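Worked example 4.2. Below are the chains of a multi-component assembly; read each line carefully before continuing.
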Amino acid sequence: MAGRSITELRGGRVYDPAHGIDGVVQSIYLCDGQVVGAPSDPSDIKVSHDLSGCIVMAGGIDIHTHIGGGKVNLARMMLPEDHRQDLVARGRHPRMGSGHAAPSTLTVGYRYAEMGYTACFEPAMLAANARQAHLEMGDTPIVDKGAYVLLGNDDLMLRMLAGKEPGVKVRDYIAWTLRAAQAMAIKVVNPGGINAFKFNQRKLDLDEQNAYYGITPRQVLLALADGIRELGLPHPLHIHGCNLGVPGNLDTTLATIAALDGLPAHLTHVQFHSYGTEGDRKFSSGAAAVAEAVNRSPNISMDVGQILFGQTVTESGDSMRQYAGSAFGSPKKSVLMDIECDAGCGVVPFKYKDKNFVNALQWAIGLELFLLVSDPWRLFLTTDHPNGAPFTTYPHLIRLLMDRSFRNDMLKTINPDAAAASTLASIEREYTLYEIAIMTRAGPARSLGLGNLGHLGVGARGDVAVYVDHPDRERMFTTPRFVFKAGEMIVRDGRVIASPTGATHVMRVDYDTSIERTLDAYFERYMTVSRRNLAVADGEIDGDGRGSLIAHGARRSS
Amino acid sequence: MPEQLAENSDPSTLHHAVACPFCGLLCDDLVVAETRGALSVTDNGCAKARIAYARPVVAASPLVNGKPASLDDALNAAARQLKRSRQPLFGGFGTDIDGARAALALAERCGAIVDHLHGRALAHNVRVLQTRGLATTTLAEVRNRADLVVLVGADINDDFHEFARRCLRPSSALAEERLATRRVFHLGPAREAPRQPGVDAESIACSREEVLDLVNALRALRLQRQPRLRGKRLQAVSNLAGAIAASEYAVFVWTPGQLGEDGDLVIGAVCDLIADINRSKRAAGLALGGNDGGQSAIATAAWLTGYPLQLSYAGRTLEYDPLRYDTARLLAAGAVDSLLWVSTFNPHPAPVTDLPQTVIGMPTAQASSMRGVYLPAGTPGLDHRGQLIRTDGVVALPLPQLRDVALPSAAFLLHEIAKRMG
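Applying the procedure described above to all two chains together yields the following structure tokens:
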């Protein structure tokens, strides 16, 4: 064992929920990129960092953040005013770049690392746009990444459902899509609604038929959720439901949970789907009802999509709802796209104002959800970057969750009618560091099936974030003391000091390759690229030493 | 004898489903034969593609001040030139995504200003995006869903020729009934109306300058205002307005590179019209452009910096200014003191200038007489693999290597120059 070179992280307070470790003072050892056990020969320890007074967690994992792909890049191009006020000066990071709501890929990677995050997952990759999404993620430094590919608005899936193709065919198509797009999971956005919008339908409720294919969102949801369960994908169907942002959509959300009837599913940015119609303004919080439904449905996980006040930009595959929302955009400009018989997108800049009743109540609804959902293993911390707020607001959001008096002080500054309409002031819960570590590390890793990420046990990847314990949790989480990526120190005192290239995580499941012949015929007959050229080859991601691929497999059925 | 057999057998290799890099459509149904480095398109592809693939490979040596040099010496000379330059300009930018990445990294290193050969045309669309936004669509949507397509001042007879066969009048579509009843209009000079067989466009003839007036007239008719048109022209425009009113999915196609200086005004007017229609029906726009890797250049710049082109790395922070950082303007104003020109898809010559230059790409007549460095480079999709983004800004395609003629990629050369910057 001569020549081992171990880095010792000595005496920090460790939060490692995957192993039930809740604030235990202990040392972590890193060697060859991994967490290892305490060395029997102390002389193997070549570097030692004294972490007394520090909090130690695995590197953060963002399970839902829009960091790459066409709509993100459209937002960048569309908003020079966004970047001009948040330019990254030469020398601040290894490469120049810009923010704020639509940052450059380089800036995204550095800023995530500077907050102690080491993995990010893009939740809305289109198969038609997968190559570009991977190119952008390939230029996102330091962090590991992966993406969820959209299905359920593509004309092919709707034709398959309308033609009553057997489930096994749908499963093969799902598995092929995962492989072709080099994706980690499957997402559905406004199930069938984006497609319906191309046929000029302006809304599509759970049981409303697509005018052209006669298929309902319920059918799309069930076909996908069931197919994914059958395939054994670790992360269940990632659902952006019907009626995003519509007052009264809490009923749709409850009906969606009921429709799933025990099938595993992840409901994303639930804040945007928890609105009632009570009160003078016909807009009220549905957080309590939604949280209650989630609490009693162990098959459901969710993330919040918290909004925070300020200028941002909303980027979504949900062209139907983005078009409806474009009237409220600020500044007044928007992009709407119908995409390749596959999906769509809408980009609408938005400014959330604390004095605006609706915005203020959205803020409160998000926090209510966080505080009323009891199981942090099924609830992940997101702002749906940048739709609710840029990811750089996470430390502020964590403080809101951990510090009730701070939360109540903020509550006093928002639109008073909204504050009065919310139960937030009466909620006493304060998140613990252990729960934060679950929501931002252990939970996402478990949900995605990431294996050696999100924890600090022996064999884990050496992705570690070290924070100086400070009662102001916003300050604490903004500037880690150290961040390690695969055992290498990449951030010191909140500044990037090294910029390795993160891996791309993909999910691989077997399928009957005869589906490819069906797809060849479909692509030949209707599409404008061939099936082969649509598929992203491994070498496009890991060729020339540019990146690397980590392939995960199906969960073994128990 | 095995050797004789090898000589007698057909030495050519057929490549299928090849994506063509020579215009922004990136048609990927070409069949290309390769015979000892010579390429020919044997199926699909337009005349322009056939000519481009068939260009003979010219054995070119790197040149320094017109004299043959080793690659190493030429790269050193290029690096010296950039180091001496107080304000370099990177122009042309005719390369694939890897080339764009390498060019931007080098530009950051030496504080360069960056523009594309088609920078002004690309900026028309970007300006509309930044001022009012856009509602757009992609090629497969046009092919399958449109029941009306209006070519607004767009000439697709040379560039974008295959748009007719692949999207306007394809052999099949998901919504067969829409394909069967699809109407195609052309707004612009009659000689520019599509001549591809079977397109059968209804032409509304007008000069290029009048296109904007006609678009505004269409809008006026929709808003039930009196347009400033009379007689036959009013009739023709009313006919189109009727077709729009009857359509379920109307697509308006423009070509930024063919619109004049006020191209953004035309595009903006069309977008206003589309926005009007979308209040009750569905419509979308489609820009045909992005040749010479233009779409890839602005996309790559946008994700790496936040800004599309034209931009500058000269200051402490990035600066984006499409007017100020325009190649012709900078050269005319004497605002830069060296030029690095990349053109790997077509032999576009660098603008005439006395400044020291480094030219990367296809050999041009001027290369042997210029002051500076010439570095021959391969064409992505022919001489080396690569990736490009299509004109609709959504689909990126892989480009294959079809032959081995030992020409390095622009990305390789740019990386090598960067390494030598010290």
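Take a moment to check your reading of the output against the notes. Chain B has three domains: 2-54, 63-118+292-419, 123-287. Chain B touches chain A through 61 residues (CB under 8 Å).
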